């Protein structure tokens, strides 16, 4: 986490979390085909922690279920996220955290696209280009310090 004196958004607005997904009797039945949907993708990323605050991306409204687009038949996932401020210097880090979480948890058949919501960040185009360039992402994940920060974002609250 960044020291309080260096926070860009000192007092972010905190939003109500969505309810937990209600499981049906067929959710754990291997005989029933269950395609991936937006709620499943949202559930994977909702608890990623913000790098500056002890809050989740869901609590800051950075990710929402309506920003997740899943096409199970075409093996594609598109997730848009909304930084809390238009000049957020953590937007690339947040996007990398989301991308890594999805790559680690979704089946490898999925093409994952992570983008900043249109019009919500001053460097939207450049960050989107970085987040969806395999070589740039791989290079970023080879940086031990950056990977340590991302792993802190990915760990659930209370775990080190």
Automatic annotation (TrEMBL):
Pfam families: FeS_assembly_P (PF01883). Keywords: Chromosome partition. SUPFAM superfamilies: Fe-S cluster assembly (FSCA) domain-like (SSF117916). The keyword Membrane does not apply. GO terms for biological process: chromosome segregation; protein maturation. It comes from the Eukaryota. The keyword Signal does not apply. GO terms for cellular component: cytosolic [4Fe-4S] assembly targeting complex. Residues 40-114 form the MIP18 family-like domain. Belongs to the MIP18 family. This is MIP18 family-like domain-containing protein. It comes from Cherax quadricarinatus.
């Amino acid at each position: 986490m960044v020291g309080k004196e260096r926070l860009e958004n000192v007092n972010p607005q905190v939003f109500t979390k969505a309810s937990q997904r209600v499981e049906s009797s067929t959710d754990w039945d291997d005989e029933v085909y269950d395609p991936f949907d937006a709620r499943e993708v949202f559930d994977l990323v909702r608890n990623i922690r913000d790098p500056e605050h002890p809050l989740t991306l869901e609590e800051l409204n950075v990710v929402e279920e309506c920003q997740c687009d899943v096409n199970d038949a075409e093996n594609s996932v598109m997730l848009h996220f909304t930084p809390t401020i238009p000049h957020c210097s953590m937007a690339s880090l947040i996007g990398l955290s989301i991308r890594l979480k999805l790559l680690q948890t979704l089946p490898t058949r999925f093409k994952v696209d992570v983008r900043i919501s249109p019009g919500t960040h001053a460097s939207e185009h450049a960050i989107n280009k970085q987040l969806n360039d395999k070589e740039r992402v791989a290079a970023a994940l080879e940086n031990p310090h950056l990977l340590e920060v991302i792993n802190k974002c990915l760990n659930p609250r209370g775990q080190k």
